[in-house]
From TrEMBL:
GO terms for cellular component: mitochondrion. The lineage of its organism: Eukaryota, Metazoa, Chordata, Craniata, Vertebrata. It comes from Falcunculus frontatus (Eastern shriketit). The gene is Ndufaf7. One of its GO terms (molecular function) is protein-arginine omega-N symmetric methyltransferase activity. Gene3D superfamilies: 3.40.50.12710. Arginine methyltransferase involved in the assembly or stability of mitochondrial NADH:ubiquinone oxidoreductase complex (complex I). Acts by mediating symmetric dimethylation of 'Arg-118' of NDUFS2 after it assembles into the complex I, stabilizing the early intermediate complex. Belongs to the NDUFAF7 family. This is Protein arginine methyltransferase NDUFAF7. It catalyses: L-arginyl-[protein] + 2 S-adenosyl-L-methionine = N(omega),N(omega)'-dimethyl-L-arginyl-[protein] + 2 S-adenosyl-L-homocysteine + 2 H(+).
């Protein structure tokens, strides 16, 4: 529902690559049997030679799907305000890293950095750096142009960051393939439409118990893929299905779990916060695996590598994987989060400052895309990890005689209060 219609991509190139990836997968399946949906998704999306994100990475109007930061600058601006408001609530530490997972075209970070620059007097002595976790060489190039005007250098002497540069606003930026490579330190993490792109396992309840859904080659039709069920339980069925599960079909994304564990332990140790925004549910949905190409639904098993494959994020699983190391907030609907962050006021300001009708119409249209419950307002959610002490009432945290004022509520999940 969130993806816009229209737009066109390199169809001939895509068809070509779809063929190459399919042949590669068919060879593998013939040689060693069916693979898990997670393995299939990983190959299709991030295979170093032919993966969808590696080669095509179609975020944006001319690609395969459009995301909130690509729809409106206001989205990134309000997220920028969220980080500043949390930085203030946490006592204005003198340095922080902004770490974005899966930055797409770099638009969201660009909008956030513009806010940081406009509010430089508030952030004055704070030493800020940006750390982008991106597997796609193609998208990292696009991010480099967006954020630095193309002034980047490969970073061979430092094995962890593969590229570095300086933002248009003078902030150092580093690129990594894995969150583990990002240096430790007080950090604000951001994952927008990132977790939905990570590989999922799928399970089906049958009369004989839980079985894992696998991808195999169709013996009747050459080079066509099909879903099959594992003949017996797989290691994943044992590990990921809870005995009290009531659904008949379940999707689990262990990679998301590992990343949330890492974020939670980093925040517990070094401080900061994480903001996750994505479409998803709280452990209630069943089959959400789907593909997008040229803004249209696409059969997940056809022409792998040419379409975005995605599944709804299970926020209840993310909450569980934080393992109590941090507090969690949400999921809260996007329209409520943005309303709490002051989107209405920001829209009014932009409307007042725009002279021409076309810009005003565009502003109203993009507001509707982000906020309308039938569009992105209800299906997208915000979820946060915060150190426990951020939410503790000062009575419990400090000695009774401490004169500290109460902690401000967390913006977005409550109304934004600016002193
Ligand atoms: N956040 C952006 C883009 C979302 S698309 C936006 O909202 O517009 C998903 C992004 O995650 C892409 O940048 C893709 O290349 C990246 N990505 C996908 N799998 C990844 C992985 N395993 N590690 C790091 N980045 C990944």
């Amino acid at each position: 529902a969130a993806r816009l219609s229209s737009g066109a991509g390199g169809e001939a190139e895509a068809a070509d690559r779809g063929g190459a990836m399919l042949r590669h997968l068919a060879r593998k399946l013939r040689a060693s049997g069916p693979v898990t949906v997670a393995e299939y998704m990983r190959e299709a999306l991030t295979n170093p030679g032919q993966g969808y994100y590696t080669r095509r990475g179609g975020v944006g109007e001319s690609g395969d799907f459009i995301t909130s930061p690509e729809i409106s600058q206001v989205f990134g601006e309000l997220i920028g305000i969220w980080y500043i408001s949390e930085w203030m609530a946490m006592g204005k530490p003198n340095t922080f890293q902004l770490v974005e997972l899966g930055p797409g075209r770099g638009t969201l970070t660009d909008d956030i950095l513009r806010v940081f620059s406009q509010l430089a007097s508030v952030l004055c002595k704070c030493d800020v750096s940006v750390h982008l976790v991106e597997v796609s060489p193609k998208l990292s190039e696009i991010q480099a142009v967006m954020l630095t005007g193309g002034k980047v250098q490969p970073n061979p002497e430092d094995k962890s960051a593969y590229m570095k540069g300086v933002s248009k606003t003078g902030i150092p930026i580093f690129w990594y393939r894995d969150i583990q490579d990002v240096p430790p330190g007080y950090s604000f993490y951001l994952a927008h439409e990132f977790f939905d792109a990570l590989p999922i396992h799928k399970f089906q309840r049958t009369e004989k118990g839980w079985r894992e859904v696998l991808v195999d080659i169709d013996p009747e039709v050459p080079d066509q893929l099909r879903f099959v069920l594992s003949p017996s339980r797989t290691p994943a069925t044992q590990n990921f299905i809870q005995p009290e599960e009531t659904r008949d079909h379940v999707e689990v994304c262990p990679e998301a779990g590992v990343i949330v564990q890492r974020l939670a332990s980093r925040i517990e140790k070094d401080g900061g916060a994480a903001l996750v925004a994505d479409y998803g549910h709280d452990g209630t949905k069943t089959d959400t695996f789907r593909g997008f190409r040229n803004h249209k639904l696409h059969d997940v098993l056809s022409a792998p590598g040419t379409a975005d494959l995605t599944a709804d994020v299970d926020f209840s699983y993310l909450r569980k994987m934080a393992q109590g190391r941090t507090a969690t907030l949400g999921p809260i609907k996007q329209r409520e989060f943005l309303k709490n962050m002051g989107i209405d006021l920001r829209l009014q300001m932009l409307l007042q400052n725009s002279g021409d009708t076309a810009t005003r119409e565009q502003l109203l249209h993009s507001y509707d895309m982000l906020m309308n419950p039938e569009k992105m307002g209800d299906c997208f959610n915000f979820f946060a990890l915060l150190p426990h002490h951020r939410l503790l009432h000062p009575d419990k945290k400090d000695k009774p005689e401490s004169p500290k004022s109460p902690l401000p509520p967390v913006a977005g999940f409550n109304e934004l209060l600016i002193k």
